[in-house]
Amino acid sequence: xxxxxxxxKKAKRKNKVGSKKGGESSSSSxxxxxxxxxxxxxxxxxxxxxxxxxxxxPSAYNSLHAFNIGWPCLxxxxxxxxxxxxxxxFPHAVYCVAGTQAEKASWNYIGIxxxxxxxxxxxxxxxxxxxxxxxxxxxxxxxxxxDEDGEDEGNGGSGTPVLQLRKVAHEGCVNRIRxxxxxxxxxxxxxxxxxxxxxxxxxxxxxxxxxxSEVSRGDTSxxxxxPLFKFGGHNDEGYAIDWSPLVTGRLISGDCxxxxxxxxxxxxxxxxxxxxxxVGHAASVEDLQWSPTEAHVFASxxxxxxxxxxxxxxxxxxxxxxxxxxxxxxVISWNRLASCMLASGSDDGTFSIRDLRLxxxxxxxxxxxxxxxxxxxxxxxxxxxxxxLAVSSSDNQLTIxxxxxxxxxxxxxxxxxxxxxxxxxxxxxxxxxxFVHQGQKDLKELHWHAQIPGMLISTAADGFNxxxxxxxxxxxxxxxx
Length: 481
Known about the structure:
mainly beta, 6% helix, 5-stranded antiparallel sheet
């Protein structure tokens, strides 16, 4: 149960390498890194000696950019837009909502923002090599693309994105925020005051869509907007909330007192909320997920270490309940491409994959990983690849996994020969581990972008990252520029 951001500080000039100076909100991209001898550094195993620092390998990313909207955000969500259902050509643009964790309750706001002109370049999975005058091998990836990629070459996209931000006042810190799948301008927020509120941000999104200019650095205006609806029936604050992907406007919310409430939309634009809650956990409900295929079925996880499956038609008790982890279950994710698969992340750093078809047999775990050594803070299946998921942890790592992979020594040897690999990766790394992203402090939440294959956005105490690892392949054919 790792929730709050420790000692929240407003983002200032120092955000990432190459960040812009001044202002509350900013965006930046990785600057050119010097070419130095490298070695593999194992998180949680190796220590950073005095005078040493970690540097990311820019060639590992098709795109990597850092930005912030002022105060750190514990939660955010990506918004579906009309820019294209499947976008594979740079530059990209994304819309998001995020809720702040400000030093004072009255300073909080919900940020509705657009990040546009996200630059990058598509890299080869196996770098091309050519011999220089000394006879040594050099990676020719950058030189091959220099003519056509210009400003984007060599560092995953060096052009600085444009950040446009609009703020809506929010009393208290935002514990969790989620956008409705069918109407993404409608968002629900969980506040640390105990209120769950629903908002209509259509006017702000329209304003962002019509403007291409970056928000003025001196613009600190915050809009005072009344929510569409607010519910104070929870007896405590909470973090669990989810919109139904099948029934427009249907919502569930869970609190730290173990209660779950179902929201049913009405024709008048409001909600009927059953004051008789669903009860089945012995402690705080940490996360909720609707089934991607059954309109009345949802899953919950709890500090009591269990996962419960509910059918709203069968009453207020769970249809099934399992002991999932030996510690708090912080997060869950229901696979929308393979609806029998449910992923869960725990406070002990482990995460598991369950096949719900095996629940009746007792042991439904089909994969269990102990790679992370600190609490799992977020987990989410890829919307484009059924076997791929991303995980974030309090160990400051964002990891990407492909469960379809198995160790193949012959293939590894061939790849090492092709890439001229001089440093062997640690032998004990799980073969399903595709990618490790670091550089953010106190990672809290991540989301894949549903319309841009391979793009992830993450939030942490020091701001956001938008990243596209170069080895995350999509089954979709590459678009022609």
